[in-house]
Amino acid sequence: MRRASSLAASSALSRVLLASSEQQHTRLFQVTSFYGGLNAGSPRRSFSTSMRSISRGVYSGTAKYFMSLGGVVAASVAAGASSLLVEEEAYAKELLKPDLVPKDVVLYQYEACPFCNKVKAFLDYYDVPYKVVEVNPWSKNEIKWSEYKKVPILTVDGEPLVDSSAIINQMGNRIIPGRSSSTGKTNDEEKKWCRWVDDHLVHMLSPNIYRNTSEALESFDYIANNGNFSFSEKYAVKYAGAAAMYFVSKKLKKKYNITDERAALYESAETWVNALDGRDFLGGLKPNLADLAVFGVLRPIRYLKAGRDMVENTRIGEWYLRMEVAVGESSRIKA
Ligand SMILES: N[C@@H](CCC(=O)N[C@@H](CS)C(=O)NCC(=O)O)C(=O)O
User: Cα separation of 38 and 32, whole Å?
Assistant: First the structure.
């Protein structure tokens, strides 16, 4: 893993910088929105994209003029940029030996599915290039060839793997050196928290993201715009889906004994921060599979109202940001 030479110092520095990172993100987000480089899903990326565009000189003279007026704004952007650079120095992807990287990896997924996002977090962190096939949840035409009718399905050099946890375990044993033989406390802790993600954390999601009509519509707007739907399906999905999931989420609340869904989400976030026990990641100085699982499951909701509330009302934001930096850009191969 690439790390800054003075690990302890940079880690401490990052901690200080990350303490105000949520405010920085909000500010950067507002600034980039103003300049038109908006990407609601990833303020960090939209910021760097905007900065790259400015430095390449792609903006018109008028736009540059308005930018030059924003002296105060620019100063705060510069401060944010330098701290983000330090963060990127300290946390980075885990790079594999090239001969361990599978040649042909295809993920059959729904863009907003938490289980699929777990697998993507793993592939992105280990920088495994993968193609994505977005499955239509109604016809499922794209996975007609498979007996398994859920997503994610990952084909690795032609071999289909199913179920997010099994996929990650099998891929981990295959590409992380020494992993299949690793034993002991660390491994037990990692396994315990991976199980917690599947048995507990995922059940917090639906009751929260569909908890009222406006949040259900916000969630389905995201799903409709990012899923594999025809033009007419999009509208049906957004409104019928939101209405249906609003009622389903109430049933799920009962099933999992949740009385106050937001309180339960916050409690889960705090439980996770307590598990970190002061470490940057559950894996110590770098993420392990449990970090990647928690991050993956939370990623589709992070910039929805539920995720924003969670970050504002719990201590999970600093860890989440470290994960965003460590996992980095997607390794997805653009078609
Ligand atoms: N335990 C499985 C659960 C996968 C799962 O339930 N996927 C959902 C999407 S989030 C699914 O495909 N449901 C069936 C359907 O859409 O018909 C895993 O971890 O991969």
Answer: 6
> Which parts of the chain fold into alpha helices (H)?
7-19, 21-35, 43-56, 61-69, 71-90, 114-125, 164-175, 185-196, 202-209, 213-226, 231-236, 242-255, 261-276, 289-298, 305-313, 316-327
Q: Among this protein's residues, is 122 annotated catalytic?
A: no
Please identify which residue in the block is written with the tokens 């793993």. 122
Domains in the chain: ranges and CATH: 7-90 (no CATH), 99-175 (3.40.30.10), 185-327 (1.20.1050.10)
Distance CA 259, CA 312 (A): 21
CA distances from 268 to 129, 166, 204, 316 (A): 32, 23, 8, 10
**In angstroms, what is the C-alpha Rg of the chain?**
20
Give pLDDT tens digits for 239-294: 999 999 999 999 999 999 999 999 999 999 999 999 999 999 999 999 999 999 99
Candidates 113, 229, 281, 303; catalytic one: 113
Unique residue bearing structure tokens 């863009």: 111
Half-sphere exposure of 263 (CA within 13 A, CB side): 5
Amino acid at 108: Y
* CA nearest ligand 1 atom 11, residue: 150
Name all residues whose Cβ lies below 6 A of ligand 1: 110, 113, 115, 137, 150-152, 163-165
- The string of DSSP letters for 125-174 reads HTT--BEEEEPPTTT-GGGTT-S--SS-EEEETTEEEESHHHHHHHHHHH
pTM of the model as a whole:
0.76
pLDDT of the residue at 62: 35
pLDDT band at 12 (very low <50, low <70, confident <90, very high): very low
Q: Tokens 């033009």: give the residue.
A: 231
Q: How many CB atoms lie within 10 A of CB 55?
A: 8
